[in-house]
Write a structure and sequence with these properties.
Layout: H1 12-24, H2 31-44, E1 48-52, H3 55-68, E2 79-83, H4 88-96, E3 100-104, H5 115-121, E4 126-132, H6 141-153, E5 159-163, E6 171-172, E7 175-176, E8 183-187, E9 200-204, H7 207-217, H8 239-242, H9 257-288, E10 295-297, E11 308-313, H10 318-327, E12 351-353, H11 358-366, E13 367-371, H12 378-397
Parallel strand pairs: 2-3, 2-4, 3-12, 4-5, 5-8
Antiparallel strand pairs: 1-9, 6-7, 8-9, 10-11, 11-13
The structure holds pyridoxal-5'-phosphate.
Pyridoxal-5'-phosphate binds at residues 54-56, 59, 86-87, 89-90, 132, 163, 165-166, 187, 189, 200.
Amino acid sequence: MSYPLALPSWDGEELAALQSVIDSGRFTMGERVRELEQRFATVVGSRFAVMVNSGSSANLLMAAALRYRTVGPAQPGDEIIVPAVGWATTYYPFAQLGFRLVLVDVDPATYNLDPAALAAAIGPRTRAVCVVHALGNPCAIDEIETVIERANGAGGRIDLLEDTCEALGASFAGKQCGSHGVMGTYSFFFSHHISTMEGGMVVTDDADLAETLTCLRAHGWTRDLPPGSMLARGLSDDPFERQFRFLLPGYNVRPLELAAAVGLVQVEKLPRFIEQRRENAATARRLLAPLAGTFDLQRETAESSWFGFGITITGVDRRVVTRALLARGIEHRPIITGNFARQPVLRHLDHRISGPLTGADHVDRCGLFVGNREHDLSAELSLLAATLERLTEERLAA
Ligand SMILES: Cc1ncc(COP(=O)(O)O)c(C=O)c1O
């Protein structure tokens, strides 16, 4: 493969970090997880961070925390507005916790939730809006917040949630994506901005939610809750009794020390990683500019961390494009799940669709993306541009 979607971002430092965990003999969640949580909270500018074993688990805890928070929990049947282009596990947890999904269109240029479509989707049961910063591109947070504030001013109680699993390092108005909403989630899977093998994080500024997330992460029990915890209020202080008190219907989605040890190394490299990804984006923008109208690069809103390079195609059959990319060893894939309303699994999820999903359909039918990473991709992007340019010429000649 001459232009793979992703390659490992580790070097000897990550391997040494793994070895230090092996030498310690302590593999399950401990000091390194706590240290990474503190470091990560500082990096993204949130008060609290709770580490888990994947981005999907982070989304699961975010949805469950909405349901089981001490103050103002959401109720089964409440509606959660989501963009029609997202990842599968953006959607599942909400439905599994008894909420109703409301699928709303995206802007076909940015792939992100369309604020006007959001405004039209809000109803009396709307309890949260969960945005997805698609392929690292920040949503129009200011417009989305205005829509939410207007609805809340008229008696609503809507929280902003952020699935930031593709957008660590992106920022809007100088503030990190994931830290704008009531909770934000991240993924540290292979090919993401930092990689800990599997791993994820939920951040929040709300102490009640942080406790709820902590409790839900491990069996719904009392351990790891801070002194004076609201959740554990009124329980006996006797350690024998207290350690095996179960408060919430939780999970076991704890991360390993191994993942946290790698995360501690990777998070220090994050600024450099993001800088290189942005330099690659500048190269992609320059090389693809002459092909605009046929091959359009995802339009950036604020400061994207460029998970990959999304391209929508006009006037050339996508199958012709994918064949040409394959022939030159350029790995590519659909833009996230495409229009999720077209995925068969949706029949298992309680939902309604608000308005037409024409933007999501465009992304679904005409989109694809190629990889970005923390190395200079000038050669790979030149190959991509030359491949697409030849297709444009062939089209003009036909
Ligand atoms: C938007 C989004 N949400 C959630 C996830 C799930 O993350 P993980 O693969 O770590 O479970 C992903 C995975 O890539 C994603 O792209």
